């Protein structure tokens, strides 16, 4: 798709989270989506009457775009509820850009919501039976990511301490974010000593379990220039699906991010050295490491050494997951939308103590399933057009 889209033709103009953490009793998935939509529209000065495109994904609602339209009284000309797990929202950005270019809609909403924490994980989504994996009783999704971590450690000498550095860096960023769930410092030693979930990943290598949702608003570049806040222009997009089950992943150390990232960079006319801030889906510490490699920020196999010594923490050489990520900020079932929200805020200069100075370009990368689907968006300020 990226080969047919025009660099910078559309922009993200409004972003917002719903309530996060553990939401009030009785709040539904659609309540959280709608809350995010209202807040994102207010962020850019638009109203529900302006919305003519609706994009949504959710794990707890069968027809999320339809349900959201009914709830808000929206009558869109175009809707899309593509579901690829946590990478869905980056794919929605690409689809919304295409729809805007084709005149199918002018103002698009992309929304998500989850009550995973308050509902209880077992009540959110039943596990599918897989005859090649289920008999071995894996703790999914953790065991799938643990396989990738174990293989990377075996093949490249990556250490548990290096993986722990990723969790520590995320926590340091979270301590600069008032909205983050985690409020206490974290050390490498604490990560390693935490309860083992699926070797080599302890509970501190794993994402949070929270409620939450949010939304973002997209429109054409021309209309974006008339709205109240600086826009984040879509410079490049890319996506890749490599497998459904981890037992069918061709190489546990190489994800589809290598392809989705290459597509997004080609459309943007940029490369990893041109990116000022990196937001990647960090459901587990190993995902941050794999995506930094596959998106070109370090060579394959060098991720462990790359993230060591605070390199991706505040003050390090590369700003990664500046809101605290899924490891320490929030993770309500699917985290991809929040990666985009933070990227936009960094480009606007709205992040306070965690703001990356001089941020003009950002990459937002989403992951779905068990490293199954990958989708990448490169964003930039008006100065990059």
UniProtKB/TrEMBL annotation:
It comes from the Bacteria. One of its GO terms (molecular function) is acetyl-CoA C-acyltransferase activity. Pfam families: Thiolase_C_1. Residues 238-381 form the Thiolase C-terminal domain. CDD domains: SCP-x_thiolase (cd00829). This is Thiolase, C-terminal domain-containing protein 10.
């Amino acid at each position: 798709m990226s080969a047919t889209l025009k660099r910078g033709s559309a922009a993200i103009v409004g972003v917002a989270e719903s309530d996060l953490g553990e939401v009030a009793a009785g709040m539904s998935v659609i309540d959280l989506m709608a809350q995010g939509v209202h807040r994102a529209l207010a962020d850019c000065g638009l109203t529900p009457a302006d919305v003519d495109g609706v994009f949504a994904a959710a794990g707890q609602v069968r027809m999320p775009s339809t349900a959201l339209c009914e709830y808000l009284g929206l009558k869109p000309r175009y809707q899309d509820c593509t579901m690829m797990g946590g990478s869905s929202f980056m794919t929605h950005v690409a689809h919304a850009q295409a729809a805007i270019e084709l005149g199918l809609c002018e103002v698009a909403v992309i929304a998500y919501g989850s009550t995973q924490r308050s509902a209880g994980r077992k009540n959110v989504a039943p596990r599918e039976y897989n005859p090649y994996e289920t008999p071995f009783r894996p703790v999914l999704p953790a065991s799938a990511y643990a396989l990738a971590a174990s293989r990377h450690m075996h093949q490249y000498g990556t250490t548990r301490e290096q993986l722990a550095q990723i969790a520590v860096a995320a926590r340091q960023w979270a301590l600069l974010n008032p909205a983050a769930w985690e409020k206490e410092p974290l050390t490498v030693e604490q990560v390693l000593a935490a309860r083992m979930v699926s070797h080599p990943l302890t509970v501190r290598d794993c994402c949070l379990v929270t409620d939450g949702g949010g939304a973002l608003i997209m429109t054409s570049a021309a209309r974006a220039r008339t709205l109240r806040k600086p826009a984040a222009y879509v410079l490049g997009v890319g996506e890749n699906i490599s497998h459904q089950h981890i037992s069918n992943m061709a190489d546990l150390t190489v994800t589809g991010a290598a392809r989705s990232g290459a597509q997004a960079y080609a459309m943007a006319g940029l490369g990893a050295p041109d990116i000022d801030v990196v937001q990647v889906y960090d459901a587990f510490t190993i995902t941050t490491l794999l995506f930094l490699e596959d998106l070109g920020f370090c060579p394959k196999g060098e991720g462990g050494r790359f993230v060591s010594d605070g390199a991706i923490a505040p003050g390090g050489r590369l700003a990664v997951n500046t809101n605290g990520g899924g490891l320490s900020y929030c993770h309500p079932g699917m985290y991809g939308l929040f990666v985009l929200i933070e990227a936009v805020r960094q480009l606007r200069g709205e992040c306070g103590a965690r703001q990356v100075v001089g941020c003009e370009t950002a990459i937002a990368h989403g992951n779905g399933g068990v490293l199954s689907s990958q989708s990448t968006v490169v964003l930039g300020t008006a100065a990059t057009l």
